[in-house]
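Hi C.,

You asked whether I'd gotten around to modeling the 246-residue construct. I have! Everything is below, sequence then structure, no commentary in between.
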Amino acid sequence: MRGRSPIPGRLLATFLTLGLALCTAVPAQAGPLHHRPHHDHRPNGPATPDIVDQTRRGGQGVALTFDDGPDPRNTPRLLDVLREHRVKAVFCLWGEHVRDHPDIVRSIAADGHTLCNHTMRHDDMGSWEPEDIRADLLETDRAIREAVPHARIPYFRAPYGAWGQSPQVAADLGMQPLGWSLAVEDWAPPGTDELVRRLQDGIAPRSVVLLHDGGGDRSQTVEAVARIIPAMKSDGWHFARPARRG
């Protein structure tokens, strides 16, 4: 009898060797997408210590920002005004007020507004050490996320504009320091007509406007906002968000 050719056996061995080599060449980290590590792909990059005071869009854009809330009287009324005119704003939240009124924080977030850390107790941090600033900011973030789990908090604003070492601490925590280019001093209510006049005279392209929905009677601010928004829209202005980085 004639024996079988040894060639098929050698071919089979070659194929097995090549297959093993290909398998071991596949990188260990390859695999299903949901097993790969998550990377931060924010288009504007990480936060910086630079204090932003302009909008992210040019032209006749303006950003409205509100400090010291949430307030049980004024914040819901302000949300009604913003909702009516389809305007998004930034709410700089006082941590103790957040814990007192978590339902209002949920309403702010549900309406699509941007959240900002405004410290836990509205203290002047101008002379604080970085570790004390960090502890306060983290406590405030926790308070906000107790009301709104997984909330994004892209900004930090220092009470009284007393920044001290807080810009770097905030940036290290992923929050951009948020300043302002126009303050109409509504913390000492001058009357609604005067607030409207100050807004009309002071707003310039890319302004970040400092207003208040908490910390006292802010009914004049709410009324001024209700008047200024439609007037500005009719003049071709649009309402934008602050820049995401300095």
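If it helps when you're writing up: The mean pLDDT is 86.

Thanks,
B.
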